[in-house]
């Protein structure tokens, strides 16, 4: 489990599938209201407090992103949860400090994303992907001193999907960065056809 602070009121937690399995939680369980998931959330908040001093009291908005092959990204934002006015009673407004609210958003992603320290590793993996005729597509970014290769898994048959994950894992590392973060803070190197472009030019 890896926790990092995005700003004063927002943290990002990266859970690998091993983290989930150790706690007897399947990926699908994150979509269900079960005690194990509540225990995991409490553990995450304890660790966030111990490591970052992030106090999770009060209303929280929780976004959960499932990343194929890598794990789950949980983004926790502290602050007012925007309930519609008709959903709030005067009594609730009078006792805001005592109300613990949790708003959870769950998203499944078809994006496969791996980080590479060196452009040589990106070139090597792209040549392997092309040789295996898995895909020519993809996007390449630069972010935090690393190269980020982003592939769409949608439409890939299972055998090719597992093959591309194995190749990416051999040369790079799974990352907890979301595409939204990349779009906002990363630099686009190749916006499309990254695999074939790299093989053409290198």
TrEMBL record:
GO terms for molecular function: protein-macromolecule adaptor activity. InterPro entries: MecA_C_sf, Neg-reg_MecA. PANTHER family: ADAPTER PROTEIN MECA, ADAPTER PROTEIN MECA 2. Enables the recognition and targeting of unfolded and aggregated proteins to the ClpC protease or to other proteins involved in proteolysis. Belongs to the MecA family. The N-terminal domain probably binds unfolded/aggregated proteins; the C-terminal domain interacts with ClpC. Homodimer. This is Adapter protein MecA. The lineage of its organism: Bacteria, Bacillati, Bacillota, Bacilli, Bacillales.
């Amino acid at each position: 489990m890896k926790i990092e602070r995005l700003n004063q009121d927002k943290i990002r937690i990266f859970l690998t599938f091993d983290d989930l399995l150790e706690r007897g939680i399947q990926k699908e369980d994150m979509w269900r209201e079960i005690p194990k998931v509540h225990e995991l959330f409490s553990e995450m908040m304890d660790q966030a407090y111990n490591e970052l001093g992030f106090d999770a009291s009060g209303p929280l908005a929780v976004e959960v992103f499932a990343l194929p092959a890598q794990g789950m990204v949980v983004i926790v934002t502290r602050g007012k949860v925007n309930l519609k006015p008709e959903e709030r009673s005067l009594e609730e407004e009078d006792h805001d400090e005592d109300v613990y609210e949790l708003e959870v958003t769950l998203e499944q992603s078809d994006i496969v994303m791996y980080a590479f320290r060196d452009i040589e590793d990106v070139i090597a993996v792209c040549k392997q992907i092309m040789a295996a005729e898995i895909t020519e597509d993809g996007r390449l970014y630069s972010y935090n001193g690393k190269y980020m290769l982003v592939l769409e898994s949608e439409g890939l048959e299972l055998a090719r999907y597992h093959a591309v994950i194995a190749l990416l894992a051999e040369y790079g590392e799974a990352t907890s960065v979301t595409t939204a973060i990349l779009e906002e803070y990363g630099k686009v190197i190749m916006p499309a056809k990254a695999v074939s472009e790299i093989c053409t030019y290198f």
